[in-house]
Amino acid sequence: MRKYEMMVIARPELDEAGLQALSEKITELITGNGGAIESQDAWKKQRLAYEIKDMREGFYSVVNFTGEPRTADELNRVLKITDEVVRFLIVRPEE
């Protein structure tokens, strides 16, 4: 199992229920593909460093998880087509 760190920026107009649903979707994707979540930050609304798709703000969250390469591949595939996600990045931290 490899360690991964993922940063997600969600759309600023999402309400608490929408953010909770997105968190559950991410959790289900990780655990359903052989991974395990180590930690997940709460969603925080912050100003973006630069405008993305006419948005100046977004909800940020960082998720640390372990999994196989297929876990990260499936997350990458699904989050690319998820409308609630503005940007995301999955990296393997140095050990």
Outline the fold blueprint.
Layout (H helix, E strand, L loop, with lengths): L1 E9 L5 H17 L3 E5 L3 E9 L2 E13 L1 H12 L4 E7 L4
Helix pairs in contact: 1-2
Distance between the termini: 13 Å
Mean pLDDT: 93
- By DSSP, the count of extended strands is 5
Computed over alpha carbons, the radius of gyration is 13 Å
Number of helices: 2
Q: In the CATH hierarchy, what is the class?
A: Alpha Beta
Unreliably modeled segments: none
Number of domains: 1
The CATH architecture is: 2-Layer Sandwich
Label the structural class: alpha+beta
Helical residues, percent: 25-40%
The shape is globular
Largest sheet: 5 strands, antiparallel
Keywords:
95 residues, alpha+beta, Alpha-Beta Plaits, 5-stranded antiparallel beta sheet, 5 strands, 31% helix
